[in-house]
Design brief:
Elements (H helix, E strand, L loop, with lengths): L2 H8 L10 H15 L7 E3 L11 E3 L7 E5 L8 H14 L3 E5 L3 E6 L6 H4 E6 L3 H10 L2 H5 L3 H27 L22 H11 L5 H15 L3 E6 L2 E7 L6 E9 L9 E5 L12 H18 L20 H19 L6
Parallel strand pairs: 3-4
Antiparallel strand pairs: 1-2, 2-3, 4-5, 5-6, 7-8, 8-9, 9-10
């Protein structure tokens, strides 16, 4: 199958994900590698290296451009320890390139870079970006690797990442000086969130809680950007926390729907978790018990759709890294919850 058509087919797994790592490899990772030009004899599964360790896949075994692919389950976020594990294989055997993937996220590491794992990351693509993934897979494909074109691809992608990081720094640097998130004024503004006084504290908290380098911060920033574009939701920073608020009728009238709190309370150390706001109760801004039941159910469905569903103390929560590559889709789905809330509040039968 042509690679772009296969990518589109694999995107269907966002709705029905593979059940485990073995299924992810069989249904997504290996088909995409084959579509990239490799034959079965070009891919060796769990071939022990010189240290007796077992990379998931050795690509072009025995040939000069040999490299490794470390695979994880679709439902598992890619973590710092996964990158370190894959790079350890390369270090033991003098290999330059390492690919780490869970099927929906693909990352390329250059082991010639003398730095920590996150700074060896030179390219990454999410399967939702069809064109980008096609380019990534073509670059790590057999023809490209044998022709020694992978280095040029890595240089170009790293330059793009650095430029994007600088643009992000300048953008959020302006906000740190208490500039409004939106130039709009009044209740009709699509993103009226006032002044940002604690955004820096929130992102600093993400950095401090992060065991993945800058992964949590990057997800947090993309989430905030998506919230800014949503017509019914808005971000509100309080201390180190981020609230997701629904804009209700009336000037500056909002209600918190959910929140993100880095490294707090009884959550596992070093994780950032999402939970529905417990202060959303009947009588809040005219919300009835009937409306609240609908909102709770919808909010829970959204949260569990995008992540591992956990319910300590009846609060739906999950690691923020589970949203990686899905930030905009998550905000869109949560936005529908907000739209339904506004619609139900205006329905006399639900009063």
């Amino acid at each position: 199958m042509e690679i772009k058509a296969l990518i589109e087919e694999c995107q269907g797994y966002y709705q029905e994900p593979p059940q485990n790592e073995a299924d992810t490899c069989m249904q997504v990772i290996l088909p995409l590698l084959y579509a990239s030009g490799y034959e079965k004899r070009d891919i060796r599964a769990e071939m022990a290296d010189s240290a007796g360790k077992l990379p998931d896949y050795t690509i072009l075994p025995g040939e000069p451009p040999e490299f490794y692919v470390e695979a994880k389950a679709w439902s598992r976020s890619l973590r710092k320890q996964d990158a370190n594990q894959a790079l350890d294989y390369a270090n033991h055997n003098g290999k330059r390139w390492v690919v780490l993937t869970n099927g929906c996220m693909w990352r390329l590491f250059d082991n010639l870079i003398q730095d920590v794992a996150e700074n060896k990351l030179v390219a990454e693509m999410t399967l939702r970006d069809g064109e980008g993934t096609a380019g990534f897979l073509t670059a790590i494909g057999k023809e490209s690797v044998l022709a020694d074109r992978l280095e040029q691809f890595a240089k170009e992608e790293k330059a793009k990442r650095m430029a994007a990081a600088e643009a992000d720094r300048l953008r959020f640097g302006a906000k740190a000086n208490n500039e409004p998130l939106s130039s709009g004024q009044g209740q009709d503004s699509p993103s009226t969130v006032g002044q940002i006084t604690d955004e820096g504290s929130f992102f600093s908290a993400l950095k401090n809680a992060d065991t993945e380098g800058t992964r949590l911060e990057a997800v947090g920033r993309k989430l905030v950007e998506a919230l800014e574009r949503n017509r019914v939701l808005e971000p509100r920073f309080t201390g180190k926390n981020l609230q997701i608020r629904v804009k209700l009728p009336g000037p500056q009238h909002t209600v918190a729907l959910a929140h993100i709190s880095p490294g707090s309370g009884y959550w596992p150390a070093g994780e950032v978790w999402w939970s529905m706001n417990s202060s959303l109760r009947p009588g809040t801004a005219g919300i009835s018990e009937t409306v609240l039941d609908v909102v709770r159910k919808a909010n829970k469905e959204v949260l569990n759709t995008f992540a591992r569903g956990l319910e300590p103390k009846e609060t739906v929560c999950f690691c923020l890294l589970d949203l990686e590559g899905k930030e905009a889709d998550f905000v869109a789905a949560l936005g529908h919850v907000g739209e339904n809330l506004l619609s139900d509040m205006g329905n006399p039968e639900n009063s």
